[in-house]
Amino acid sequence: MKKIKQLLALLGVLLLAGLYISTLIFALIGSSQSMELLKVSLIFTIIVPVLLWVYSYIYKLMKHKDSH
Questions:
Q1: Spatial separation of the C-alpha atoms in residues 45 and 41, rounded to whole Å
Q2: CB under 8 Å to 48, separation ≥6 — which residues?
Q3: The model scores a pTM over 0.70
Q4: Angle, helices 2-28/32-67, rounded to nearest 10 degrees
Q5: So where does this one cross the membrane (predicted)?
Q6: CB of 16 within 8 A of CB of 45?
Q7: Averaged pLDDT score across all residues of the chain
């Protein structure tokens, strides 16, 4: 279970790094379509960490519930 958790954490870090890089690229490109992509990238940059936290919180609650 520890390996799965480490793998998911690594995937989360890679996903966030990709979002940060894409946000930077979209901010530097001057086209109108890049502004829409920038907005989407910014939204996901906020949503993904929140979802990762929620999933880890629920996992801890379920794990604690199973140990009783």
A1: 6
A2: 12, 15, 16, 19
A3: no
A4: 160
A5: 37-58
A6: yes
A7: 84
Q: In Å, what is the CA distance from 45 to each residue of 18, 23, 58?
A: 10, 8, 21
Overall number of domains in the chain? 1
Position 67 pLDDT exceeds 70? no
> What is the domain range of residue 63?
2-67
Amino acid at 34: S
Q: What are 56's two structure tokens?
A: 């880890």
Give the dihedral sign, CA 16/19/25/30.
Answer: negative
Q: What are 8's two structure tokens? A: 């998911």
**Residue 65: is its pLDDT beyond 80?**
no
Residue type, 5: K
